[in-house]
Write a structure and sequence with these properties.
Length: about 150
């Protein structure tokens, strides 16, 4: 995800609430306010950081990911647990959102994908059990996810 600062230059004295526009790579615009150029730039950087940096969550118990955990979440999982993958609506996800996992300890992690279509190589099961294994799911439909990474055979 990339951002750019609006091409409209800021100069001279700023009005009470000056705005700067940041734009996502997809073209969505967001206005950032501030009373000085430094305020506007700092507030814009805070918004960009929040949208592009991972929230890291450590979990050793079974859980269901939810977008309310953060805009970009990196789950570091341990123990033999079940991760229930939600539908797009139930988890608050948008098409194109990604959920990323990392197996910390090599215990088998199982994914409950009941009612979902999971697109992955036919020879792999939906789980991962090697220490250091990464895995990602990308929401591609209301009940459909693409699965990639180091999966169980």
């Amino acid at each position: 995800m990339g951002y750019k600062i609006s091409d409209t230059p800021l100069s001279g004295a700023l009005p009470n609430d000056a705005l700067i526009e940041i734009e996502t790579a997809a073209g969505a615009a967001q206005h950032i306010a501030g009373t000085t150029i430094n305020d506007v730039v700092n507030n814009a950087q805070t918004e960009i950081d929040a949208a592009t940096k991972y929230t890291i969550i450590n979990s050793s118990v079974s859980f269901t990911p939810n977008k309310s955990d953060g805009a970009k979440v990196y789950y570091r999982v341990s123990n033999a647990i079940t991760i229930t993958i939600p539908t797009q609506a139930a988890g608050g996800y948008n098409i194109g959102d990604e959920i990323t996992f990392f197996n910390v300890d090599g215990s088998t992690k199982t994914f409950d994908t009941t009612g979902l279509t999971i697109n992955n190589a036919a020879s792999f099961s939906v789980g991962f059990n090697e220490s250091g294994s990464p895995l990602a799911l990308v929401c591609v439909g209301a009940t459909e996810w693409d699965l990639m990474g180091d999966m169980s055979v």
